[in-house]
Amino acid sequence: MKLIVTIPAYNEEKTIADVIRSIPRHLDRIDSVEVLVLSDGSTDSTMEVARNAGAEHVLNNKRNIGLAKTFARILDEAVARGADIIVNTDADNQYDQNEIPLLIEPILNGTADMVNGDRQVKKLDWMKSSKKYGNMVGSAFVRKISGTKLNDASSGFRAFTKESAQKFILLAEHTYTHETIIQAGNKNLAITEVPITFKQRTVGESKLITNVGVHIQKSLMTIFRSVMMYKAFRVLAWIGALLIMLGLVLGARFVFYFSQGLGVGHIQSLILAAILIITGVNTVFLGVIADLISHNRKILERMYEKR
Fold it and tell me: What is the average pLDDT score of the chain?
């Protein structure tokens, strides 16, 4: 049983050595533990520091491609190197690597395909209110649309089985955290969550969240794309039904006035009703088309998994 700890990193030369050295190398029921660092085009000494700290595999993107794409690549690299279990952690030393045994326990017990580390954001007094409540609202939204019960959708401290890691087809460009949960929920993977320690960052600043507003905007776009990928018919059908209902109400209003001999003064209601009903019907048809595309994508995904 091989465990590979993956660390996506971008200009983290000051902290990555502490992260690597604190990773436990002898775990019950695990035959070997290896560390895989993927530098996202770092311009500092991140790669050299990682090698000197004991990372078995140190790779580099030729240019900076962002956390989401780096995470997608690092999962593939871990699977290619024979990982049975993959633990992903951050290079900024905010997670306690001694909690890796806690994170992989549900996988070793056969009760989970994916384990999420719950940072217990509500209890973090040092976290800025904008980030704290943004995390809580975002997690609630992801919980709703993914059908999972996870409290912390933005945590980067996670464990995956090899099989679950191979099922992800990640398309986001900003962050992977929400998209993986939504995909896992819609692929019926067994997901659980364990409480973890989350330390305040003492060196440098977050490379991902340089602006809270921009981060929220990009995260919402990722969530929206994921929802439309898996639940497009439901969303578009509801929107279409709402438009049709509004059109029918306006149409009924026109019929009422028409029956009273006042139809000429309310012709605008008839025009608007027709526009709403036609738009609603077209929206429902778009949902049907999107649903057929979704089924086709699922077939392609299954073919990919069986290769």
Answer: 88
